[in-house]
């Protein structure tokens, strides 16, 4: 009985060398690269206490879904909000400012208000939020 030998043609390239290179690159980038940016100082995130009642008193700055502003129920223009807050701060020192933003309001509307309020001398700024699980009417 005579057996035929398989034709000796071109063999495929061995893949083990490629796997070794890929694992070497993986280990190299894991050792060299940082997975996340860490702060150069200790950061302790704030604690949430939903059982605390909302502080009373002070002025209320409301932000609509589209960025319209109202100070104590009166509409105020974006350009005039700094002057209005300065007037409030001058009339009563140590006044609390409560910022009540719509849940769909973009942060680009809310965050500049914090900077403006801080520049006007407000030390006590409260962001009004709805606790998770609460129903909104």
What does this structure look like?
With 137 residues, this protein is α/β, with parallel strands linked by helices. The protein has three helices and five strands, in the order αβββαβαβ. It has a five-stranded mixed β-sheet with strand order 3-2-1-4-5, with helices on one face. A hairpin with a 5-residue loop joins β1 and β2. The longest helix is centred in the N-terminal third of the chain and has 17 residues, at 16-32. The radius of gyration is 31 Å and the shape is rod-shaped. The mean pLDDT is 77.
Helix content: 25-40%
Give the spatial strand order of the biggest sheet.
3-2-1-4-5
DSSP helical segment count: 3
Morphology? rod-shaped
**What is the H-and-E element order?**
HEEEHEHE
Structural class by SSE content: alpha/beta
> Strand-residue fraction?
15-25%
Taking pLDDT < 50 over at least 5 consecutive residues as the criterion, the unreliable ranges are: none
Characterize the main sheet. 5 strands, mixed
Summarize model confidence as the mean pLDDT.
77
Amino- and carboxy-terminal Cα gap? 90 Å
Radius of gyration: 31 Å
Total E-strand runs:
5
Characteristics:
single chain; 5-stranded mixed β-sheet; 137 residues; alpha/beta; 30% helix
Chart the SSEs and their pairings.
Layout: H1 16-32, E1 59-63, E2 69-71, E3 74-76, H2 81-91, E4 96-101, H3 107-119, E5 124-128
Parallel strand pairs: 1-4, 4-5
Antiparallel strand pairs: 1-2, 2-3
């Amino acid at each position: 009985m005579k057996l035929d030998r398989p034709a000796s043609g071109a063999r495929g390239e061995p893949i083990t060398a490629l796997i070794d290179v890929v694992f070497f690159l993986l280990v190299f980038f894991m050792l060299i690269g940082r997975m996340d940016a860490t702060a150069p100082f200790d950061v302790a995130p704030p604690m949430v206490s939903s059982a605390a009642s909302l502080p009373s008193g002070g002025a209320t700055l409301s932000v609509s879904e589209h960025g319209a502003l109202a100070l104590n129920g009166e509409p105020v223009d974006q350009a005039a909000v700094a002057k209005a807050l300065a007037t409030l701060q001058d009339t009563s020192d140590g006044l609390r400012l409560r910022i009540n933003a719509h849940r769909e309001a973009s942060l680009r509307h809310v965050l500049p208000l914090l900077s403006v309020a801080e520049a006007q001398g407000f030390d006590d700024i409260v962001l009004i939020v709805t606790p998770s699980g609460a129903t909104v009417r």
